Sporulation initiation inhibitor Soj (Aneurinibacillus danicus), 255 residues
Amino acid sequence: MAKVFSIVMNKGGVGKTTAIANLAAALHIQEPDAKILMIDSDGQGNLSLSFGVNIQTVEHTIYDVFVGKRMLDDIKIDLDENLHIVPANEDMNTIDFAILTNLDLYPRPLFILKEAIQNMDEHYDYIFIDTPPSLGLVTGNALAASNKVVVPFQPELFGVQGLINVLFTVEQFAEKNNPELSVAAVFGSMVDNRTGLHGEMMQQARRYCATNDIYMAETVITRTIKYANAVARKEKPAVYTDKSNPYFDLLKEVL
């Protein structure tokens, strides 16, 4: 049975997709025999784009799985022998309307993705789910389907409060819908060590996590253009060309 990880943050621009792409790719490099599936559930399709998938030309996406037209195995794209991805595109931006206005067809709207994964998770060792920057229906499906959640944290002015809100939401969701779910790690993302504010916010986050028995990774992902450059120029995550990338260290902590 696969270990299922989702990455969650209700704010865009915090490096969420970059993180899940590089963590999955780093694992693929370190464990080439492990069977890995990535699921892109964000309407921007950035996880798909990170691996060179043209989301404008794919015939079927995760949207088709949500509405019951396709199985995950039907639409996965083979990136390598043991690395596969289920793509997403802008169709996912309307999935809430498609599901929530037809509850007679979807009586368990929070468990659509979980049920889809259960049909094939025995074929994978790891599944990584990217989510949209919100705590709506799609993210709820990811949390319901996951064993572990990873939470990136950008140490800006309201960052600690936003982190606390997300962690509280995950805790409440787990109690009601998925008691097997737990936080694998919180980690600092897009950190600028030159600013005192970032240092202060990181310390506040560490104190909160320590007080509430939540693991906060020692590894910090600093602000840099190299991750965007890797995708733009190489159509692959940066870990494939940078063997000293901090995502290898973060992967150890997440696992």
